[in-house]
Design a protein that fits this description.
By secondary structure, the protein is α/β, with parallel strands linked by helices. Helices cover 45% and strands 16% of the residues. β26 and β27 (629-630) form a beta hairpin. The longest helix has 22 residues, at 701-722. It binds one RNA strand through β3, α13, α16, β21 and β22.
RNA sequence: GCGGAUGUGCCGGAGUGGUCAAACGGGAUAGGCUUAGGACCUAUUGGCUUAGUGCUUGCGCAGGUUCGAACCCUGUCAUCCGCACCA
């Protein structure tokens, strides 16, 4: 069949499913299954990544439906956030890059122009995504679909309710927050809005103030733990500094720092410019109480920190080497009027004890790495990293930290106390906070970004200890697919800090009590799965009538139904429907969302719903590769869902996606397989038509083998579906069953048993139905079944019997290999079956060897048996071999029987006479030394 | 740097203490079928081999535990994911 014709068949089934409304979920008295897949952000077509993740839910949903569950699978569309708005803006500006992105997706210039309006995206892409899911045969209840943001007033009301609840419980807090900021446009700058500096983040420095008469000279550090070791300050004589009034104090800092501090909750006024050289030789009073000089150093850069460095030569190789350099440099000292004697008198002050280093760690590392001067930039960088790592993790604070602080830190580990020391310094008059970027960031406006402290930012209080406890309780009671993601979840729940949940621009819902702010996209998508349970009914209600009382009633069962503004009956139905479907049984997505979305989902559920409505299980999967490569537009292997549908049809695409991977590993979509799949699936249909309800009545051993094999596979496949291991399920249900079928047909010389082959066809069709529903419906219909296979009952496994088919199979392979070796066309093949005593020996050896591998003990026990004792030397050889490679117990009756019954088959396969001789009947057989489980073969 | 995951033939991947490491899929090679190609069928696909249903190696690397390790432990290297206001 041509692909085009096949796709018409697929369309036929979609239409039938729709007409029968089999995916429209209604509460009833069956057990329910509610699974969902995060609503995709609708700024482009769906791709194979969406396809693979969502297929896992789709297949599970169909599986559950066949197991008698009432299944709800709904799908919404996410519009919240800034990407659509900023993309639309760039279309409006006719920016070539953005224009090109749409052009590549196949839009005409005329169409693209329309995308200047954000709503055009939201009108277009959800509709197309729905088409993709429909074409692919998803069992989604589309009546319940919706979009987010204020464009959907009902959803908007729902999110407002959610935040009102969170606020009530004090899980939304107002606070200060450092954001990457464009000072020219006065906007925050996300990672995607940068020309340079993606991934750079705010970094918190400690400002250390050094008393300088009535003023302060201010340095910045990331190592407040070494503050007791300051021996001097370094200033670059060439640098441009300034004196500024900062919150009423006179500070000497770089102009850049003065500018930046004005964005960080400080009132800053620049008084006058100062050249670095003006400060050299002056003295300052330290936090530690010491008085130290200001020295010149060329390595000090005004772009980093405050442009002034305090020197801790004991634990900074940079500082120490600069000191060495200066101590050798009389000319410079003289130039700045420094007393050589005083410079030479400066010695590092030990502050940390680090195992593996002597008193002055920086000295060690300079020697060890052979650093010669300030110009050994690479080695100095390495030294810095090593000292930081070892100092932080292994170091302890020395006795200098005994009295200076409120607490006695002497002897304590740096790792444990660094944070407390930092806070104490900041709280003192010698310290303050300062944020700088980890690297240069340039915004689209071309201006260089800085860090701004936003002071009316709203946060989700994920740092709250009580909330964390609830989240852990929820996680502890969840099933995770796969289980090995649990440690990552546990880590993330602990690691999450307060999350800024509001933004200044984009699409979304306004914060109910502070309408200046929009709720950010990761925060409005945490409990919306509850919305699916009622969204189709909400469409009948004027959103104006929805208030917090309404949602309280429906989702929490609180309040008086009679007082609601909406239709009472409808409200009651919604309450019942929510109560029926919730909690969600399964939510699945890519592993990259563990760190935010999935964890947020846990937090928010515990905040709003009672325990019995908390999520039951999460599924996580790897990313999708195409033909072994990461999918990317530049490599030309970017495949959208509709590409896959067009090229392979739904069944083949579905099959290929799920057979590409499972668990947390990346999945590989092999296009070659997808291409070949339609023909293979059709072959199944042809086979079914040919053999269903036809065949031999008599039941042979080989039929029993096949029956058993079918049962075995039902059991295994069912287990795999339950664990969302769809690749393994496909492996068994398609490939392994096909191979079994191949052998069966060959073994029964193309004359299958009617009952067996019919059962085979039906079982395989049922097992594959969740993954390739179209071909399975087609087969099911051809078999004369009246109902949809989508609603058929999952097959039940019968008895699994042990047979010796594997023995027959390996015997045939052995015979063939002997024939190949001797390279003749055989007239007669003689098979010698092992002696009786050998079976006996094996049956004694097996349990024996599990106990002990002591050769003497084994010999001792086996030789007690009279039959074996008679064959002493031979037995020894067998035991020796068995000890080396292990043994199995062979059922001699079944084995000889199997061979006797397969003489016809072997004759047919080999085209020659077959003779079977038991060893005790023939000297030659004994000489050939057949062992249990292996026959000796003679070809003539 | 932090946290997590992974590392098995030419490739994708099974196998998590013992009967056979490499199921299954793909690729390659040979043969069959075919006007040809594709599809399909059969066989081969670590090394050695005096060719024997033979021997032996091998599961990132190095150690260890064990009668026995791809699997457990320790160390180490490499790759991938995430690290925040971004969907």
């Amino acid at each position: 069949m041509l692909l085009g014709d096949w796709m018409k068949t697929e369309e036929k089934w979609i239409k039938r499913w729709q007409e029968a409304k089999i995916f429209e979920a209604k509460p009833d008295n069956r057990e329910k299954f509610f699974g969902n897949f995060p609503y995709p952000y609708v700024n482009s077509y769906l791709h194979l990544g969406h396809f693979y993740s969502s297929m896992r839910l789709e297949a599970l949903s169909r599986y559950k439906r066949m197991n008698g569950f009432n299944v709800l699978y709904a799908q919404g569309w996410h519009c919240t956030g800034s990407p659509i708005v900023s993309a639309a803006k760039r279309i409006e500006e006719k920016e070539p890059k953005q224009w090109g992105i749409l052009k590549m997706q196949g839009f005409s210039d005329e169409q693209i122009e329309k995308f200047a309006d954000p709503e055009a995206w939201i009108d277009y892409f959800p509709k197309e995504a729905k088409k993709d899911f429909t074409d692919m045969g998803y069992s989604i209840d589309f009546r319940r679909s919706f979009i987010t943001t204020s464009l959907n007033p009902s959803y908007d009301k729902f999110i407002r309710w959610q935040f009102a609840k969170l606020k009530e419980k004090n899980f939304v807090l107002k606070g200060h927050f450092p954001v990457v900021w464009d000072p020219k446009d006065n906007t925050p700058v996300g990672d995607h809005d940068r020309i340079e500096g993606e991934g750079e983040t705010p970094q918190e420095y400690v400002l250390v103030k050094h008393r300088f008469a009535e003023k302060w000279i201010v340095s910045a550090t990331l190592r407040p733990d070494t503050i007791m070791g300051v021996t001097n300050l370094y200033v670059n004589p060439e640098s441009d500094l300034c004196e500024a009034t900062v919150d009423g104090e006179a500070w000497i800092i770089s102009e850049k720092t003065a500018f930046e501090l004005s964005f960080q909750d400080k009132k800053v006024q620049i008084k006058q410019k100062i050249k670095g050289s003006e400060l050299i030789g002056k003295k300052v009073k330290e936090f530690s109480g010491l008085e130290v000089p200001i020295l010149p150093a060329s390595f000090v850069n005004t772009n980093v920190g405050t442009g002034i460095v305090h020197s801790v030569p004991s634990d900074s190789a940079d500082d120490l080497i600069a000191l060495y350099d200066l101590q050798k440099d009389e000319a410079t000292c003289k130039k700045y009027g420094l007393e050589m004697k005083e410079v030479l008198a400066i010695k590092p002050i030990a502050v940390l004890k680090i195992p593996g280093y002597n008193e002055i760690p920086a000295e060690d590392i300079i020697k060890k790495l052979g650093i010669k001067s300030q110009n050994d930039k690479d080695k100095l960088k390495e030294a810095k990293e090593m000292l930081y790592k070892d100092g932080f993790y292994k170091g302890t604070l020395n006795e200098l930290y005994k009295k200076k602080f409120k607490k006695d830190y002497s002897g304590k580990k740096v790792e444990d106390e660094k944070e407390s020391i930092k806070e104490e310094i900041i709280a003192s008059e010698f310290g303050d906070r300062y944020f700088q970027l980890t690297g240069k960031v340039v915004a689209r406006s071309l201006s260089e970004c800085i860090i701004k402290i936003v002071d009316d930012q709203w946060f989700m209080a994920y740092g709250d200890k009580e909330w964390k406890k609830l989240a852990h309780e929820c996680l502890d009671n969840m099933k995770l697919y796969p289980e090995k993601t649990r440690s990552q979840f546990n880590y993330v729940l602990d690691w999450l800090r307060n999350w800024a949940c509001t933004r200044e621009f984009g699409l979304g819902t306004r914060l109910p009590w502070d309408e200046k702010w929009l709720i950010e996209s990761l925060s409005d998508s945490t409990i919306y799965m509850a919305y699916y349970t009622i969204s189709h009914k909400l469409q009948k209600i004027d959103a104006e009538l929805l208030d917090d009382n309404f949602f309280d009633y429906v989702f929490l069962g609180k309040g008086d139904l009679k007082k609601l503004k909406v239709d009472k009956k409808l409200a009651q139905e919604m309450r019942e429907e929510f109560d029926y479907w919730y909690p969600m049984d399964f939510r699945t997505t890519g592993k990259d969302l563990i760190q935010n979305h999935m964890s947020f989902c846990i937090f928010n559920h515990t905040a709003i719903f009672p325990k019995e409505k908390w999520p039951k299980s999460f599924g996580l999967n790897g990313h999708v590769m195409v033909d072994g490569d990461k999918m990317s537009k530049s490599k030309g292997n970017f495949v959208t869902m509709r590409d896959a549908y067009r090229d392979y049809g739904a069944d083949a695409a579905r099959f290929t996606a799920l057979s590409g991977g499972e668990s947390i590993d990346d999945a590989n979509f092999e296009r070659e397989m997808a291409k070949n799949m339609p023909a293979k699936l059709e072959a199944m249909l042809a086979f079914a038509k040919q053999h269903h309800n036809k065949g031999r009545i008599e039941k042979l051993n080989i039929d029993r083998w096949m029956d058993s094999k079918i049962n075995e596979i039902i059991v295994e496949v069912t287990k795999d579906y339950e664990e969302t291991l769809f690749r393994s399920a496909l492996q068994l249900a398609y490939f392994d069953l096909q191979n079994a079928l191949k052998w069966y047909m060959r073994r029964c010389v193309n004359s299958p048993n009617k009952e067996t082959i019919t059962r085979f066809i039906e079982v395989q069709t049922l097992l594959l139905a969740p993954i390739t529903p179209f071909i399975c419906e087609e087969i099911w219909e051809a078999l004369g079944k009246k109902e949809f296979i989508a609603l058929a009952r999952w097959p039940q496994a019968g008895e699994i019997t042990k047979t010796n088919e594997e023995f027959v199979k390996s015997t045939l392979e052995d015979i063939n290999s002997v024939i190949r070796l001797v390279n003749i066309k055989p007239q007669k093949v003689t098979l010698f079956i092992a002696d009786d005593w050998k079976y006996e020996l094996y049956s004694i050896l097996k349990p024996m060897l599990e106990e002990t591998r002591d050769f003497k003990a084994v010999i001792g026990k086996t030789m007690q048996n009279e039959k074996i004792k008679k064959h002493g030397q031979d037995a020894m050889k067998i035991i020796e071999k068995a000890m080396k490679s292990g043994v199995n117990i062979y059922d001699k009756e079944a084995e000889s029987l199997a061979l006797n019954e397969s003489v016809d088959f072997l004759k047919n396969e080999l085209g020659c006479e077959i003779e079977i001789i038991k060893a005790e009947e023939s000297k030659e057989a004994k000489a050939r030394n057949a062992l249990p489980g292996k026959v000796a073969i003679l070809v003539k």
